[in-house]
Structure formats: structure tokens, C-alpha cells
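_Per-residue structure_
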Amino acid sequence: MSHLPRQALALLVCAYPLEIFADETLNDIVVIGERTSTTSEATKRYTVPVTRSATGLALTPRETPQSTSVVTRQQIDDQALQTTGDVLSHSAGISENRADSNRTSYSARGFDIRSFQFDGLNIPINRFWNFGDTDWDTVIYDRVEVVRGATGLLTGEGEPSASVNFVRKRPLPEPAVSFSTAAGRWDRQRISADVSMPLTSDGTTGVRFVAAKDRKDSFMAHMEDDHETLYGVISSELTPGTQLTAGVEYQHNETLGAGASPPLFYADGGRTDFDRSAANNTPWSTFYNETTRVFVDASHTLDNGWTLRAAMSHNDGNYGLEYLYRGGYPDRETGLGMSNSFLNYRGNRTQQTFNFTAEGHFDLLGRQHELGLGWVRSEDDFEIKRAAPIGDTPEVDSYFNWHGSVATRPQWGDYSSSDDTNVTQNGGYLVSRFSLSDPLSLIIGARLSDWELDQTYYGDERQYRYSNELTPYAGLVYDVNRWASLYASYTEIFQSQNARFEDGSLLDPIQGRSYEVGAKTSFFGGLLDGSVALFRTEQDNVAEAIPGVEVIGQPGTAAYRSVDGNRVNGVELELVGELMPDWNLSASYTLANAENADGERTNTTHPRRQLKLFTTYQLPGEWQGLTIGGGARWQSDTWRDARSPNGRVQVGQGGYTVADMMARYRFNEVLSAQLNVNNVFDKRYYEQIGFYSQYWLGEPRNAVLSLNLDW
């Protein structure tokens, strides 16, 4: 194909994303052929041919009746996205909100993201205790797949926000070795190695080992982050059609100088205006989490083409924090007057997930269709213990002494249990893709789930059970031509809640529903994908306290009733892939208007609108070793009501843009160097404002230079 038609089409797609559906003359465009899964690192592209994250079936983006995105290995490397948090904050439709040095929440379509998947196995995020669920090193992942909206068919319990699937690297059929070292602002130091080696001459058995160590200081006083990652995996084709993969990953994250956020108000009610180094910590403050995850994945393809899969994951984790929390408001002149709490927590956690699936084709009424079924069980068991200071509590200095040590480390007493929780979920699902005609397909499915929680929270025993929760799924896809399709879908998800009616019975789970219609395109054999989606998300059965009413027989326990919850209407547009040879683009726009049943805006701590753009271009001719790139992330205003000395006031962050740039030069087939500059224009902005009357600033301008060797 000549470059001229591609260039013309690329410009047309960029300028008129909706007009492409009216043009039938571009006959030289090819479509994706085989729907076979592949690793993204082997393609060096921003797109992948198929994913399974929406339904469990291997579907191309055009065949999937939901809004999906993929951040491939190439995009991760181009943008130097070193943590899973980096990936999510650069993903279409996802926003972040940071509470303190180690707690970050993510939202999509007006609701919190409450679970992740790893190779399709669902792992819940602990919303209250930080076991590092949102802070993994990306060095071990091939790509990250995102499905937005209600995703209860595969995830079970959660909110109608998005599911995020982290797909691990696998052994490669040919020997490959890569080594990278990087340095950057705030004494940033990083080193990583990735070795893949076949053990048989035909490459059907191989091993892969990945290791990384990353440390850096911070623009905030005393703070230092250290991350260590180890990963090993072996994969073998035991017999024709039988694949066995087993692996283990270990991650250890530690923050010295951990702590909360700087105060937002002075004691007189005025706003503070500290420089960026202001912190709310001490030199001895510490936070850490450590996780070891073992996984086994076995699959077998029968002679009739059906594939059976059994997979399991076992995680052992622990975490701890020890720091001084200061709340309230300092005196404008002395910096004194804040409240002080010395905190010390330790936690242990065990997670187990089992997944059994079957997938294949069947014939009905002269046409071939697809069927998938599965059973999933997950168990999350953790205990949190707390220690209190003993003896004399150390004196706390003025807040203005954040560059020094405002308090010495106290002596701690024995640990006692504060939260001992076990959450178990079982679910079975069935999904089928019916080929109604050559251009029209129907996907229908359902899941039946059991969910239970047993908890002892500061001595208060709690038990919650939900049985036979039905979660339907329906989608319709119509192929307009070889490169464009229209779709509509209806999906659900349920969310547990711990509220009771006046008679003591448990409220039904919150029901989340997503309605979505859209259009998708795929050009150049899947090298460039585009989509537009209109969606509406609803929540019902949300608990609302009944004023002055208590649960019968439980004095002091408020009674609740079920009411309609939030409604979110929005639109998403995305264009990702190769506009022309050596020119990659990832662009997205999201509007999510979240309101409660009374029409009032909700989820105001996350932006209503987002625009994300990143592109790279490899120069031609004598400069073909040079790749340049850049991008920007814009979001609209956010706000919340915060306590101040003068009562509750509204505080917020106006809309802002953060720009990034990169350049990479490949000296030869082995050696390359890359420079990434983040927040090029040094924009000062709040990542969070008003939480506990404090704030968290985004990182100032910084740069990272890496040297990479690939054999």
C-alpha cells in the first residue's frame, strides 16, 4: 500500500472522526485476519488484535460491544510508565486521586475502580488498608487492558466503572536479553534486566526472568521511595495443544518519610501557600508493602477446537506503616496548634483465586457460533494489627519545621487486632456469541454469584451474605463494512453494602447498570483503531440512613432504606495506533457527567472531562535512529467541601494541562538512549485537595535519562 492513501486517511480520521462511516471507497484497507492472541512486545505497536477482558471470548476490538483500551508494551516504554499507577493515569477515561504518600484511588465513568485482573484472574483492591494493590512495577507486564462500564460478567462484585487486566510477559520463542539503567531528578536511579531463553530447540519450552530496582527521593522533604521487583516464569507445550505456564513474582515497596498531606488552612481560616517541599511527615516515618504471588495456568485444546483452561493464583502479602499524622490547622505565625496522632499498623494478607473455563465453537441453524463458560472462586483473607505509643508521647515541633524532625519516634506497645476480615466470592458464568448473519452478531451471557464477608472490626463481629446474584450481559454488533461497526450493549454489576433495614435484614446489593451505544473502526489490518461511545450508567438500591430510626434490637445502629443512586451520562472517543509508518498516536476524550437522584453533581473529586494525547514519530533517512514524541493530559475542574476553622468551605482545582516530551536515539541494533521530560512547563496543580483539609501537589518538572541494551 502506498503511503499517500494512509496519510490522507490518517488526516481524515484526525479531523473528522465521525465522517468515516459515510465513505465506502477505501477498498484497499484490509481487516484483521486471525483472531489469535499475541504479545504486544513482539509487535512494537499501540494496538493488539484481540482481548478477552470483556467477555472471556477472544474478540477483536470491533467485535467487543463495550468501550475498551489497551496500553501496550511499546507505549509503556515510550512514555516511561514505570508503575501501574502511571499506566492508569495515562489510560483513556481513568482519573486518579491521591490521598497521601501511598494511597491513590482510580475512577472511571464516575465510580471507583475496585478490582484488578492479572492474566484474567480477578483480584480485589483493598479500599481501606494499603497492600500495594495499585503500585506495581510495569517491568513484568506485556500490556494493560481496560474495559469501561459495568463488568460484572467476569469480575462479579464491584462498581460500574472499569475492569483493568494486567497481562504478564511470557517466555519468547527466541533468546532475548535486555538491560536498562536510568537516572533522573531527585536522585532517581533505576536498573532492570529481562532475560528470556528457550529450553528446547523448537522454542516450545522456555523460561523468563525479570528483575528491577528503582529508588528516588522526592520534591517533598524527607521522602524516599524504593521498589524491588523479581519475576520468573516457565512455559511449556507438554503435548500438542497442551500448554502449562507457572511463575512467581515478588514485589517490595518502601517509602521513607511517608506521611499525610500538608494542611490547607491556617488557624485563622486563611489558605496556606507553602512551597512544594512542604510535607506532613518525619524522617523516621515508614511505609512498606511486600507481596509474593505464585500462579499456574494450564490449557488444552481438544480435537474439536474447544479449549479448556484451569488457572490459579496464590498471594501472600504484608504491609506496615509507622508515622506521625498531624491534622487541623497551624498558627500562621508559629506553626503550632495542629493535632497529633502517632500511628503504627501491621497487616498480613492471603489471597487465592481459581478459574476454570471452556471455550469453543458450535453449529446451529447452518451458522457457526461461539460459547464460553467458566467458574471462578476468590478468597481474600487479611488481618490488621495496631500498636499505640507507651510512656511519654514525644513533643511535636512547629509544622514550619518540615525540613527538620518535628518529633522523635515514640516507644510502641504490643500489637492488637483491629480488623480481621475474610471475603469469599464464587461465580459461574455462561456467554455465547451468536452469528445471526454475516454482518450481525449477538453476545448474551449471565453470571450467578455468591458473596460473603466475615469480619471482626475492633471487636465488632459482622457477617454479610449475598447468594445467587444474577448478572446479565447483552451486546449487539453490526458490521457496516470491512472496517467499521456499530454496537449496543447492556451490562450489570453488583456491589456489596453493610447496611440493614429497621427489621435487621440486610439491604440488597447496590445494582449497577451500563447502557452503551457506539461505533468502532479498524484500519490497516488493525494498526489503527478508533471508537466513539455514548453511555449511561445507573445505580440503584443505594443505602440511605433513616433519620432517628435504629435497627430493632440493636441500639445505636442506624437503620437504612434503599434509594436510587447516581446517574452518569457521557461520551468517550479514542483513536490509537499507527497513523502512518513510524507515526504512533494515542488520543482520547472523555465526558462523564455524574449526578445523584436529585440532579446534583457527584464524584466531584474526579474531573468531568479529560483529554489525553501522546504521539511518537521515527524520523526517516539518515535520522531514522531518532524517535521524538510528546503529549499532554488535560482535565476539567475538581472540588469538594472541606472543613476549615470557619466551617465547611468549597475548595477545588481548576482545569489544567500537563505536557510531557520524549526522545530516543538508537545507535545500533543493540544500544539506545531515551530521555523523558515530564510536566515540561512545570505546572503547579493539586492531585488532591480538601481530603482531611489537606492537599497533595503533582510532581514538578522532572526528567529521566535511560540507557538500554537489547540482544
